[in-house]
Model the fold of this input.
Amino acid sequence: MADLRIDFCGVPFKNPVLAASAEPTLSAENMKRVIETGAGGMVAKTVTDSEAMRRLTRMSKWRYLDEQHNVCRGKVPRLFTFYGRSGLAEEEPEKWMEELKEARVAAERNDCVLIGSVGGTTLENWARLSRMVEDTGVPLMELNFGCPHPSEMKGAHTGMLVGQDKNAASEITYAVARAVKIPVIVKLTPQVADVVEMARAVKEAGASAVTVINRFVGFCLDIETGKPYIHGWAGVGGPWVKPLTLRWVSKIHTGLDLPISGTNGAYDWKDVVEFLMSGASNVQLCSVVMLKGYGYLSEVIQGLDQFLDRKGYKSVKEIIGIAAKAALTYGEMEGLPPERAVINKELCTDCQRCQRSCFYHVIEVREGSVTIGENCRGCGICTCVCPVPGAVTLQT
Ligand SMILES: Cc1cc2nc3c(=O)[nH]c(=O)nc-3n(C[C@H](O)[C@H](O)[C@H](O)COP(=O)(O)O)c2cc1C
Done:
């Protein structure tokens, strides 16, 4: 068995699979269910001083959509879209701290790390709520600069409205990092031009780590009724968003010396491996847990463990960032040995699909037979559209 333990901001985790801040961590009772799965940790639902954001959770609406963006009924495909709206923790802060304390005690007993999460509306309240969260005894806290819903609400200046404003994000991070002793993780929004710049700004202001990344706001609709699902705009994401998230995970990993917690787009153990190889030290799952239930987290941990064994990795730490470090710049790619496509005449059925997809016009059909010209630049599209394994390959 590979060693699944990781260290994040000086806090040991028994494995890197976490439940994200959301409905699966909405109460002490829910958080205890995460603990039972053997997850390395979890982020509690975000506590807030915003009455509007607390109320929004009472009006929660979610839909799983299929690849055509139709509402799923029973069967949810792997590349689902999760379209939904909910607010932050429903309890007022004082009451929420009781939930958090109860969950923290249970988590500690089971070697599970509970991370607090804060979403204030004023500088004073960010600091005040953070101190309250620290007083519950949690070892880490996340600042929610990514919640997409405040952009559609009146009177809830929090979440991504903060995450889109570099000055506000820096100011709040600085105030919180001075107000508490535990490490502060900033959860970023994808809805900025340059996430690395925002990560750099919060690092300079005192963040010990970043969570990359919260969800987008989207608009999904039903053409039969001519109306949007769940009455309007909502948060949108799902496993299809993973490549966009991994871009920022890998860029922050290679560009900044800052630990990363990954979220937004992980479905299974393979996705967790991708997040880790891109540079995340741990991975938070949400919408797939809401789809499959808490027990699914145990399957993800098991799948990760089996993968590491199969590949001969002794520790999960060995894979953190390896793909990000292997990525070449476009300039470096110019030094690679040239490749070209080669047809295996014994396997080729002359179906001509490769020729239809060759936009450099180097694949010709002569007397019904496919040939590849000298000027092939090895783009590789023919190897993807060819229906016969091995009939066309790239060679240097
Ligand atoms: C229903 C729902 C509620 C959420 N609530 C919060 C929250 O309170 N605080 C927060 O930081 N993120 C919240 N998120 C974002 C998740 O923590 C997570 O980052 C996001 O869903 C991406 O992960 P996924 O692709 O595994 O779903 C919520 C997401 C969903 C879908």
Notes: The chain has two domains: 6-326, 335-395.
